[in-house]
Write a structure and sequence with these properties.
214 residues, homodimer, mainly alpha, 11 helices, DNA-binding
Chain lengths: 214, 214
DNA sequence: TAGGAAAAGTGAGTATACTCACGATTTATT
DNA sequence: AATAAATCGTGAGTATACTCACTTTTCCTA
């Protein structure tokens, strides 16, 4: 008897999706409540009602599992940006800073655990790491995203040619802002916002003066 | 009978020093040969001829142990700088870049394992980390060191007032260069050196144009 | 529909960073 | 010197991320 219902995806795939979602749901709840280090893989699997080994069929390491959420945010950040018509017309610096601002907004519910893995999330991946970063492609997607924005601005004559270096530098700046944000204890993270604003002005002034000459 | 020899330091302190040195020696050898993750704390203690528990009386975590070497280098980097009369007269940018250049030179023998911990070494420490970073003071020492250089240049009218932010930014740039250096597979790390040079020129041009206006 | 191949799930087992209660050693006190 | 107190060393024990040989489930073909 073939399974009832609409048989668009096979049972195998459906089950896999279900398990995957169960893991992610359980993990997010536990990470958010007890932090990355306070959550054991055993607890996650129990909550997801699977064997502990199964978890590792889906995510090579616990860190990869946590990284997933960070990458999710990076992805949806790009989607958000594409949907913001207003930003398409704004000057480059404003666009770039809106990206970071929005990103911080989105990850703020998870502040307590994101710190444990964010460093690996934006860092250009190194051969040294024995940690299995399945996120290579996410890095590239983010990099190309930023690179695309810079390219546009370059051809529009808005900024001088900054090449890959520009995108790379922005990624590091992004990282730096998250670092600052994580430590910021001011109400409403106003210090971080102030710093972002300041940097916006600096960057604007810098580029207006002609930037660097390669 | 009081112990023979000159009794300047007590026996306790002498033994402690000896043990500490034994641990560091064993750890450095193993880390350099087998990397951070390929070296077990058990192997380190065996090589240092101590019990495994003793190791943790001296270093709270394995990561702290590795971090020690990185901090050592940061310390001796400062000493090296103080002893370089030539640099005292050089323009600020040249001084700052000499610092990074020299640092990379010094850590190059340990490239294979330093990558595992360097991120934590220069990163401003966060409350989030459950890792016991005894290195707080090292961060501060390094920060004050850079801040001092910037202060000099500011009072000399060489650069505009950049405040703590300048020192912080330089720290992040330093971090970025190490990241790049770790991934650089070109012979003699020439790509990293080229990038350093390029950044030197950019920074020089930037500051010459008046920098930013706070 | 039967049987077998492929995929997914399982949980006892392994490796290892780190702890802790206790014993050994050094120092301080009389 | 005898004893007490402080410090240091010890290694069996613990917690937990991750593995793997095996079982169960799903899919495919005749």
């Amino acid at each position: 008897m073939t399974a009832g219902s609409k048989s668009k995806p096979g049972k195998r795939i459906r089950n896999k999706e279900k398990t995957r979602r169960a893991i992610l749901k359980a993990a997010l709840e536990l990470f958010a409540r007890q932090g990355f280090f306070g959550t054991t893989t055993k607890a996650i699997s129990r909550k997801a009602r699977i064997a502990e080994g199964t978890l590792f069929n889906y995510f090579k390491t616990k860190e990869d599992l946590a990284l997933y959420f960070f990458e999710q945010e990076l992805e949806s950040l790009q989607e958000w940006f594409e949907s913001e018509a207003r930003l398409k017309k704004a000057p480059l610096t404003e666009r770039l800073f809106a990206i970071i601002h929005h990103h911080l907004d989105r990850i703020s519910p998870y502040e307590d655990f994101i710190g444990a893995v964010y460093l690996r999330a934006l860092q250009p991946s190194s051969k040294l790491s024995p940690l299995s970063l399945s996120s290579q492609e996410h890095h590239w997607k983010y990099f190309r995203f930023i690179r695309g924005l810079l390219d546009e601005a370059e051809t529009a004559g808005e900024i001088p040619n900054v090449g890959d270096f520009g995108a790379y530098a922005f990624g590091l700046f992004h990282l730096a802002m998250i670092t600052y944000w994580l430590q910021d204890r001011s109400p409403g993270k106003e210090q971080t916002l102030a710093l972002l604003d300041r940097c916006l002005k600096i960057a604007t002034g810098f580029l207006r003066k002609g930037g660097w000459d390669w």
